[in-house]
Amino acid sequence: MGKTLAEKIFETHLKDEPFEGTKVLSLDRVLCHEITTPVAIADLEWRGKDRVFDKTKIKAVIDHVTPSKDSKTATQAKMLRDWARRHEIPDFFDIGHNGVCHAIFPEKGYIRPGFTAIMGDSHTCTHGAFGAFAAGVGTTDLEVGILKGVCAFREPTSIRVNLNGTLPSGVYSKDVILHVIGQLGVNGATDRVIEFRGPIVDAMSMDARMTLCNMAIEAGGTCGVCMPDMTTVEYLWPFIQDEFASKEAALADYSKWVSDVDASYDKVLDIDVSDLEPMVTFDYKPDCVKPVSEMAGTKVDQIYIGSCTNGRIEDLRQAAEVLKGKRCTDTVRGIVSPATPKIFQEALDEGIIKIFMDAGFCVTNPTCGACLGMSNGVLAEGEACAATTNRNFSGRMGKGGMVHLMSPSTAAATAITGVITDARTL
Amino acid sequence: MQKKFGGSAIFLDRSDINTDEIIPAKYLTEVTKEALTPYILEDLMLDGFDAKGEKLKNATVVVSRENFGCGSSREHAPWVFEVNDVHTIIAESYARIFRQNMFNCGMLAIELPKADIDQLIALQQQGDVTVSVDLDGQAVTAKAGSEEKQFSFNITQFDKALVEAGGWVEFADARY
Predict the structure, then answer these.
(1) DSSP A205-267
(2) ipTM of the complex
(3) 364-393 in A: which are within 8 Å (CB) of B?
(4) CATH code assigned at B26
């Protein structure tokens, strides 16, 4: 019997099996941000164990509320900053260099095929796009990860989602994943890895693959994964060129992680995307999805383009293509948050920031921002937002607010009209 | 040290109760567990539920439906239960991260089949429900008025070891 990518990673990283069914894995990356890490730091200090297992494997960023908005968030940032300095963690990103964790860490080449990674953040599943096993964990798991470099899991089974057909023009990776979540349901992948396969994924960029994997958790998935291929190698090449003689050699090595053809799956979903429409959520659960045509005309008050789901350069290009030469209608507030300084710079160089500003958007610094209603862009009661984010829970972007999840293209079209709009109809 | 389990139950009869409902993100700026205490279940969407009511205040057991604790990885969700003395949750199923966070904190996330949860919820008609937990016997006993019902549950050896050790930090520190 063959093995899935996840099974191969579990096998090679198994450090201990204290009880049948419990796999303690060694970790290649422990990722940290300022919201879930400070309590772990404080607890380690209180226990007299303020140590790190390997400072080169720990990466830290201040991203959720930055620049700090008040004394409490300033304290959280300070706790992470002081800790990173105290332990001489080389890869720590603060004001001027910081960005959304699940955008900046891949961008720096920290995630490689076959790696294990944890973070105190549910969207850590994003990093599976590189053929890694990356899982969101709580602060206690993070704390043990920081101290010991291990994490315990029930070994997940895998669900294989074959994405076939041809993706219609104007339909994107975000629409695909919303559709998949609609099919699986919000707990359809609990304790499972979602393996995204097929020609649609093969043709996707790393940015698009990260959007897919990012939302695996919205179906309850432990991680979303894509198979490493030449697209993965090309993306990572600036960081791995000293390790391999050629790209082909890198690909040959990374291919060992690809799921075997005779691997077994819990479930296989075959989806032909050829007739897929742009998708939009309604209500307060991410599996409440409808084609945009059924949601068209729904009034919104705010547009938010950004987040670890859709704040990357391709997402901004997608929105700018729709917005070019047009303006936000007077009844909406447009906010765009490029996810990292590099993305911001690229968007400046490509004239994308100017397109957004000419359209009347407020361009913020790279941050998690409005997505979870912790800092900027909070909704008032009764307001609705067209958002490229990942979660539409009640109160997510502010008490009494409604979030409609959609692609950057649909969000941009909605900015122009003030009501949910299919960009292809403009 | 092992925590105390069981006690007075409150019923949250809905599936997919998420971590944003349990503790909204705006309170994640707190850096101590205790500071979270007043905000428990503040944004819960459930008819007739009062987050500031006596019922919740007196409860040490929460009973709910499917996919409890879905969404964010924030351990603030188990913590807000912990600081409100709710150390036992009984539900049909859990989101993975929330379930692990509960056991990592040395608390109990007990899974019972739908039919058992139906019976537990129906028991409310007899009056206030008190739950006792026998961890070694893997059984939950619920009493209301003169009626008593017993349900058996499964717990993995690892999760039980975490509960007995008082949490994952204690377990891992002793072993790795």
Answers:
(1) -HHHHHHHHHTGGGGTBSEEEE---HHHHHHHHHHHTTT-SSHHHHHHHHGGGSPPTTB--SE
(2) 0.95
(3) 372-374, 391, 393
(4) 3.20.19.10
